[in-house]
Amino acid sequence: MQYIGLIVGFVLLIKCADWFVDGSSNLAKALGVPTLVIGLTIVAFGTSAPEAAVSISASLSGQNEIAVGNAVGSSICNLLLVLGASAAVFPMAAPKSVLKKDYMFAVLAAFVLIFVTGDVFLSGGFEGFIVQLRSAMSAAGNADAAAASADKVISYVTRSEGLILLTFVITYVYSLILGVLGNKDDEDEKGRFSWKDLLMIVIGMLGIMIGGDLVVDSSVKIAESFGISTQLIALTVVALGTSLPELVTSVVAARKRETDIALGNVIGSNIFNIFFVLGSAAVVSPLTLDITAFTDILIMTAVSLVVLALASFRSNISRPNGIFMLVMYAAYTGYIIVR
User: Fold this and answer.
1) Do residues 107 and 305 lie in contact, with contact meaning Cβ atoms separated by under 8 Å?
2) Is 266 in contact with 246 (CB distance < 8 Å)?
3) Of the candidates 105, 167, 164, which has an alpha carbon nearest to the alpha carbon of residue 304?
4) How far apart are CA 121 and CA 208, in angstroms?
5) What angle separates helix 49-60 from helix 195-224, to the nearest 10 degrees?
6) pLDDT tens digits for 142-158?
7) Largest separation between any pair of C-alpha atoms in the chain
8) Which residues contact 151 (CB under 8 A, 6 or more apart)?
9) Which three-class secondary structure state does DSSP give residue 102?
């Protein structure tokens, strides 16, 4: 039954993503709004809905490893797998204005998360952090690890810190709206509004959310049947599953030469993952994370800077760069499996 749900979920994701991209692109033209802004807001928020649903549900049920691992793992997946696959399909322009403002806001999100969660792990300096990491990795797979877990060093994302994260995403969306209004020109050529486009967006978004849920639920049940740990499931199966809407939407957009939607989807999704998804989950129930989860946050930040460097060169992400990013994602997946 799980395998049938997985197949149905994939079909919904692929077909509904096609409708979602077409409807969003047409609506942007009808309203005279740049497709990049649509990608950064409507598309990004819509494709991040599975992450929000999974992390908030996990937070409510006390599954903090899934709540945090899902958001962080999805962000890494977005940068390396989604953006890499999109660039491999069709090279993507990366305007300097987007890199300096929108992408830098995504990098800021990663550093804010380090600041919020790193006080405990970095209190002993870099050497202390390495000692904690080695201790955690040596305990992994140990039969006595459960007994030692009571002494495990943890950090928190409190409700007040969750509210601060939500404030960031509200500020970002508000700045985007002001930018659109400020650059609005009544003489700009507009397309023709169609209710069909709006219907395609709504049905597409609903289909993406339902398909994402089916894929995640089926994948988790299949993974659990093989005895895989919760954290590994969160960083791989759940993170990849909840990133499937971004992956399918961005690849479809790249194939249709709507690279602004593809790029905006990834950047906006990462901003929403950290500020909205983790912020909302923390407000619902304070989040805890251990040293390995914090290590993944550091990796996410490093990956953000690497992708920024690749995109800044000639202001585009070429096919070779996209393939390199896919190789990096494969290496990261191998690392979290063996650690």
Assistant:
1) yes
2) yes
3) 105
4) 37
5) 40
6) 544 444 444 577 888 99
7) 70
8) none
9) helix
